[in-house]
Every structure is written in C-alpha cells, then in structure tokens.
C-alpha cells in the first residue's frame, strides 16, 4: 500500500496518526523553491505542525527547478513521512509524522505559467528556498522571456508578476526567507534580485515596491535530514508503518530555524508559535555563531582526521574512547575561541546538544560528505577561530592543530581522472570534492609533507591571512602530520598523554 489520500483510512488502521481532511482545503500561502529533504524536514515540518494545531492554516506550493519529474509527489498527493529518530536529553526519540503541508509540486520547465499564476493569489505571502549555496548567484539573463535559469531570476520574474497582478499595492509584498547555508543569505539574495532587475531595465516603481513592500530575511537552518534510507533500514521502517513512501525522509530530533525579522515578519510566519525551535529575532548572530563554530567548526576540524582514523560515520568516531575525548576537548577549545560574546552556559548547552547529535544511532552521517568543499569550510568556519584563539591566549590550540594536520593529509590527491581528484589512505580510494583539489594535487606532486604545510599555511590567497605567522602553529601542524602518518588514531590518543 502506498501513501496517498485515498489510502489514509487504511493507513489509519495501522496506528499512525493521519492528517485531518480539513488540512487539504487550506489556502496556498507559501511558494517554495526546492524539493530537498532539508526543506521538507524543517520549514515544512514546522508549517505542518502549525496547521495541525490550527495556527498557520496555509499550504506550500513547491517549485522543482532541477531536472526530472515530480511523479513521486503526484502519486502520493504530495504527502510524505518524516521519521524522527535520535537522542534528546539522553532519551531515545522515535516519531513518525505524515506531513500534509504541501498542496502540489510544480516543475519549472513545464509548469512555469502555473507558477506565475500563484503570484495572483492574495493568500500567497511567503517565499522559501533552498537551492544549495551556489543557487544564490548573479546570472545575467532575460527573466521575462521563457523560464529563467537561475533561482534569483525565477524569483524576480515571480515578484514582477506579483507586482503587476496587484498594481504594486502596499499589502501585496512577500516575506522571502532563503535557507541556503551562506552568511546573510537574505541580504545577498535581495542584492542579486535588485541587480538583475536593473539589468532587465524594469521600471523604478517595481524596484521601489521590492524595497518598500517585501522583506528579505537572513536565516539559519540546522537539522540533519539525511533523506530516505535504503535496503534493510527502509524495509524495516515501511514494514512498521504499513505502507510505502517514495519520498519518506529521516530526521534527527534537533531542529533550529533562526530568522531575522520584526513583528510584521512574525505575524506572517505565524507557524513560529508552535515550536520554540523557530527563532524570529532582530539579530540572529548568536545562533549563527553557535552553529557555525561549535557544530560546523567541529565537523570541519574533525572530518578529514576522523576519516584517516578509519571512521566512516560520525557516531563511530565518538563511540571510540580516544576520539570521543578528542572531540569534546576540541569543542571546548572552539567554544573558548568563538569571536562573539556568548554566555558560557549557552555555549556549554549547545556543545552538549551537538555531541549528543554526533552520537545519534539512527542517522548515518558520513564524514566523507562533510569533506565536500573542505578548504572553503576551513576558511569560513575555522580560520576565525584560530585567529581569535591566538588573540585571547597566544598559544598553540593543540586540538585545532591536529585537525588542521588531518585536513592537509586528507587533501593529498594521488591521481587525477578528468576533472576528478582522488586520495588514498590505508588502501581506500576517495574522491576529493573541493574546488582547491587541483591546487593540492600540484602541490603534493612536488613537495614533502613539511613543504606542503609551509606552503599552505603561508598562502594568503587561501586564507586572506598567513597562518604560518601564528606562533608555533606551523611546527605543531607538521609534527601532527608525522604522527598521523604513523597511525592516525594513535595521534589522537597521544593528546591525552
């Protein structure tokens, strides 16, 4: 039996709570660019939760911009299951939710007119997006002829359609909340939309309407949503549910959506009322720093080293006695170096939460997936930590130095196939998915490990500063590289001695 509206009565008999019929008649209030699991597991999760409590009372129209079809959503009447699994305050969490927040899924290439028609709906008040970090980029294109290629182009065309449909009325503006993982995503998206409007020579009245009547919110999302499992894991879940679901998604219990906004934004995004994990505040720097440094920073200092230690999953690493100690000490070092004033109790609570998330026995979070664009992550997340640590303590942050040594050794391509680069460690070949892979490939071809370390640490084009200028850091990194080459896990254990 497949999940669908027609089968809900049968599914109800299996014990899972099914959506009330009245939810399917709620008006469409949200246009969402992206069908990905993060959007379905976080924003749409909150909207569904609010609808079921009679708070937000609106549904989501999803725009699918990438190739492929939307058959899976159509066959299931846009219903899907969120399976929440993990640990929360030491207790195991297991919850299955049939999400009924999505009304329909439209494909940009074939349903563009229907998408533009949504702009004529007076109930439509919100635009959400998650088009990956590269989605928010400026592409010069005519947005009024055919389907724009870029996400900002599609958004501009939709806003222009909205402007014309309501004659630029004061109440016709939208709240636009991108969730792409880039700093100040709302500000950047607005700047690109305005630049593209100028390129398309759209009238001043429309540009004034964008500025005066629409709100672009910076936002931060945090939830591990690995998507649909496979094999025996999927079979076990669907057997327990009593139905099949082509777009089922797994999710951890932890959730956070921080949005910069005022009372007007709160009024529009009223779903925030049903879950404290939705934070709408004038400044979300606190949440950005906690996530960027303690969660993401720990991931980045860890991922290469953990892989070299032979761990495939995050939970495997923290289950090891030595690596568990290393990770906790690294988190403490990172916490002390955050370049933003945060209450110590708040940082400690976030770190405790983060470590518990690493331990989640239900989520297969791969270290290799965290290494994608390793260099840019190291620069954005961790270089500010290094600099601030030296500013505060003026000594070598040993745990960070070991993590950086792991990064350098992981970024050692041993072969190139076309535009792909591959490393090898203990007989395992892995692809290095990093824009700097060619740089490291050429560097490692002609230099020793110590020479590579010196070159990388001195490279101001990579870091916009010289990491070699940090007293003792280069020496520590080179020492740890030697230790790792003699045995990665032993190098970790040595920090305890």
TrEMBL record:
A Pfam family of this chain: Mannitol_dh
Keywords of the record: NAD, Oxidoreductase
A GO-annotated cellular component: cytosol
Record flagged with keyword Nucleotide-binding: no
Single GO BP term: mannitol catabolic process
Mannitol dehydrogenase C-terminal domain span: 283-484
Gene Ontology molecular-function annotations: mannitol-1-phosphate 5-dehydrogenase activity
Gene3D superfamilies: N-(1-d-carboxylethyl)-l-norvaline Dehydrogenase, domain 2 (1.10.1040.10), NAD(P)-binding Rossmann-like Domain (3.40.50.720)
Signal sequence coordinates: none
Residue ranges annotated for the Mannitol dehydrogenase N-terminal domain, each copy included: 29-268
Alphabetical list of NCBIfam families matching this protein: PRK03643.1 (NF002969)
Protein name: Altronate oxidoreductase
Species lineage: Bacteria, Pseudomonadati, Bacteroidota, Flavobacteriia, Flavobacteriales
């Amino acid at each position: 039996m497949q999940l669908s509206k027609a089968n809900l009565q049968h599914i109800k008999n299996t014990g899972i709570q099914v959506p009330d019929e009245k939810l399917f008649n709620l008006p469409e209030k949200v246009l969402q660019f992206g069908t990905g699991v993060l959007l379905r597991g976080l924003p749409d999760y909150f909207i569904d939760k609010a609808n079921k409590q009679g708070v937000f009372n609106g549904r989501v129209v999803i725009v699918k911009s990438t190739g492929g079809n939307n058959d899976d959503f159509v066959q299931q009447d846009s219903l899907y299951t969120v399976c929440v699994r993990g640990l929360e305050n030491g207790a195991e969490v297991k919850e299955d939710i049939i999400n009924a927040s999505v009304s329909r899924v439209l494909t940009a290439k074939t349903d563009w007119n229907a998408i533009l028609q949504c702009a004529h709906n007076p109930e439509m008040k919100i635009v959400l997006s998650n088009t990956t970090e590269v989605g928010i980029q400026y592409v010069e294109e005519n947005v009024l002829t055919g389907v724009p290629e870029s996400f900002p182009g599609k958004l501009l065309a939709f806003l222009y359609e909205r402007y014309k449909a309501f004659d630029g009325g004061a109440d016709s503006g939208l709240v636009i909340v991108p969730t792409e993982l880039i700093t100040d995503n709302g500000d950047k998206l607005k700047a690109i939309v305005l630049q593209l409007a100028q390129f398309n020579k759209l009238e001043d009245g429309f540009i004034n309407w964008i500025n005066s009547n629409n709100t672009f919110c910076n936002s931060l999302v945090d939830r591990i949503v690995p998507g649909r499992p496979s094999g025996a894991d999927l079979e076990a879940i669907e057997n327990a549910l009593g139905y099949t679901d082509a777009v089922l998604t797994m999710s951890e219990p932890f959730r956070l959506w921080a949005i910069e906004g005022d009372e007007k934004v709160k009024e529009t995004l009223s779903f925030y009322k049903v879950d404290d994990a939705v934070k709408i505040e004038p400044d979300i720097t606190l949440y950005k720093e906690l996530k960027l440094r303690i969660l993401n920073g720990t991931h980045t200092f860890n991922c290469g080293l953990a892989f070299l230690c032979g761990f495939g999953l995050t939970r495997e690493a923290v289950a090891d006695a030595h690596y568990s100690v290393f990770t906790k000490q690294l988190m403490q070092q990172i916490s002390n170096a955050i370049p933003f004033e945060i209450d110590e109790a708040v940082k400690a609570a976030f770190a405790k939460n983060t470590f518990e998330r690493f331990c989640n026995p239900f989520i297969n979070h791969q270290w290799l997936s965290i290494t994608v664009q390793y260099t840019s992550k190291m620069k954005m997340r961790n270089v500010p930590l290094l600099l601030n640590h030296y500013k505060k303590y003026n000594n070598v942050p040993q745990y960070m130095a070991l993590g950086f040594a792991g990064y350098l050794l992981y970024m050692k391509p041993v072969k190139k196939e076309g535009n792909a680069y591959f490393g090898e460690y203990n007989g395992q070949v892995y692809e290095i998915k990093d824009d700097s892979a060619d740089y490291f490939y050429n560097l490692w071809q002609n230099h020793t490990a110590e020479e590579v370390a010196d070159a990388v640490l001195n490279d101001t084009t990579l870091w916009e500063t010289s990491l070699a200028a940090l007293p003792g850091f280069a020496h520590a990194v080179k020492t740890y590289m030697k230790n790792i080459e003699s045995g990665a896990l032993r190098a970790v254990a040595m920090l305890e001695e």
